[in-house]
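lol forgot to send this yesterday, sorry. struct tokens for the thing we talked abt
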């Protein structure tokens, strides 16, 4: 009887360990599948936005007036960002627009964490939730334009690849896109997709990370 009792206890312990290991494995698999889906969605978004950028450049006759310059001889330009974004978003499929009060207006979700860096004020909790121009896109993603307190937009915006679905966390489903201009006058998005966002060490920082 004692042997049978000991065997039963051992079996129960081993079975419990097996169930725990199985649960952990399933959680990891589901997490990996979810992250891969977010990466796929952001890859598609990045491609669509790149095409929209090219169309906007053409529509504005090659001078968009809203970019950070990689050429030390050419200054950054923010003077025409309002017009640029008006044309840029017109080249995308939109469902909803909030000029301000984006969180209350249902254009963005509440995020796990916001930047607290003074130089990144436009992506702070207060600015994103209350002052940023925000859009719900046709694919249910979200777009938020970086804005300063003087209401002057900047050549950077944030994209939530899966919209209101979790995790709503920078570097996992929330990324930034920065508009650049090189010395040849060509426009492109910077490969750093974590600029001014509170991305943790294991989060996605660069476009190359999306393809891993």
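and heres what i got for the seq, position by position
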């Amino acid at each position: 009887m004692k042997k049978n009792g000991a065997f039963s206890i051992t079996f129960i312990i081993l079975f419990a360990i097996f169930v725990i290991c199985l649960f952990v494995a399933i959680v990891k698999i589901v997490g990996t599948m979810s992250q891969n889906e977010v990466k796929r969605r952001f890859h598609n978004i990045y491609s669509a936005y790149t095409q929209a950028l090219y169309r906007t450049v053409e529509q504005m006759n090659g001078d968009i007036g809203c970019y950070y310059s990689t050429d030390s001889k050419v200054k950054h330009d923010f003077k025409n960002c309002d017009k640029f974004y008006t044309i840029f978003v017109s080249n995308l499929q939109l469902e909803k627009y909030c000029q301000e009060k984006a969180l209350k207006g249902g254009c963005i979700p509440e995020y796990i964490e916001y930047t607290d860096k003074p130089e990144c004020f436009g992506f702070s909790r207060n600015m994103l939730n209350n002052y940023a121009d925000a859009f719900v896109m046709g694919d249910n993603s979200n777009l938020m334009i970086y804005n300063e307190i003087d209401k002057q937009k900047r050549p950077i915006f944030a994209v939530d690849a899966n919209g209101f679905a979790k995790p709503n966390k920078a570097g996992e489903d929330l990324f930034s896109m920065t508009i650049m201009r090189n010395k040849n006058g060509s426009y492109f998005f910077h490969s750093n997709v974590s600029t001014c966002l509170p991305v943790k060490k294991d989060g996605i920082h660069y476009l190359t990370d999306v393809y891993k």
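Residues 2-59 form the longest helix (58 residues). anyway ping me if u want another try
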